[in-house]
Each structure stands twice: as C-alpha cells, then as structure tokens.
Input
Amino acid sequence: MEKKKIVSIEDRIPKLKEARKKKANRRLLFYLTIFFVLISIIIYLQSPLSHIKEIEVQDNYFLSDEQVVSVSGLALGTNIWMLNKNSVQKKMENHPVIDSAQVKRKLPFTIELDINEHQVVGFLKEEESTYYPVLESGMIISNSDIVYDGDNPLLTNFDDDDYLTRMTIELGDLPVEILNLISEITWEPTEKNKHKIVLYMNDGYVVESTMRDFATKMKSYPSIVSQLDGEDKGIIHMGVGTYFEKIDE
Output
C-alpha cells in the first residue's frame, strides 16, 4: 500500500504567505491603475485637449456655416463632453429654416452639425423681376442666390403673411410630382372666401380651389385630368365639389 506524503503546516506557511502577498500586490496594482485612470480623466477634462476646436456644418444650403453655428449656440473652447446634444438639436430645429438636425462628436475635438432644411415650395414675386424662394415653413429667403427657373410654383398676390404661410404648408404636403405640375398660384380672396386661390398648371388647365385641405384635394388632380379630353381646356373647380368647366376659344 502506497504511503501518502504528509506536508507539515510549517512547510505550507511560506507558500500561503507568498500567495497572499501576490494577491495583495495584484489588488494594489488594480487600485493604483484605477486611481491613475481617474486622475488622467480629471486632468484631460480640465485641459484644452477636451475643448472643442472645430465645428463642421453639413448639408446646409440656405443658411451659412456661421449662421448654423450661431443658431446652435456652440462655441470653440467649450468642453466637448459637457455638450448636451439633445438640447443643441432642439435649439436648431426651432429655427424656421431648419427641418431637422443632428449633433455628432468627432473625437478628439470636433463637433459635426448635420441639418436638413425645409424644401422650397415656391417663389414669391415681389417686383417685376425679383423672386424670393419660399420654404414649406413659410419662411421667405431674401438673401438667397437661388434663381427662379420655373421648376417651382410662382406665388403671386400673397400680401398677407398668415395666408402665405398657410399656402406654403399645404404645398409642403404635396407629392413632388404634383407640385411640379403647378406653374403659378394666385391668391384671389373674396368677401365670402378669403382662402380662394387660382392655379395655372403646366399642362394648360386652370384650377380654382381653396387653401383649406388644398394638399388633400390636389392629390386627385392626375386622376381628374386623365378623365378629360386632352383637347379640351378649361377650369377644374376643386372646392366643396369637383367639376370641369370647359372654355370655348
């Protein structure tokens, strides 16, 4: 029968002490590492290394880079980690030109502002040859380099800002393919109907309608035209009811 080797307590004590020492050293190293990491983070946050040194603006067309940065409220030298992205985003989206915005950190020290501006839904004719782009928000861009080329409706006789805004909101709800069919929209209010508008279409038809639920009504325009004789020209009335009035030349 094989004899078991007996290890005395005196022989095990040095090994136990060594194991405890190694464990204590590892624990000390762990705490020292955490300590120096925290110290490094504090030093970094307090140093210029964590400050915003560059602000990039993307996808802006009407607003300049400087205007977008001004709207955001951001400034160089601000701590990049103290930035509240949601707050900056909401501030930017309150601007009438900006439809949506995103704020991104690009480490180590850059902030990127990505914006989507409201679409151009028409051009407002102010003088004989002066045309200002109008956004779906109702905002008139008076300092734009955009030239009127006939691709968007020409808005005439809109001398009341409230009615202009209502019209542009309706135009913003129109599908692009229908918006592109409109050549000109004239506001022709009457005592009974302050919302009356007359549209001159690129296909030769004239539409008399109202601003109320205009986008909803106009979505049926292609279907209405498809039922008409292409040789007949006239007025499509789209008010309470819809009917075609032929005009004999």
Notes: The radius of gyration is 34 Å. The longest strand covers residues 98-106.
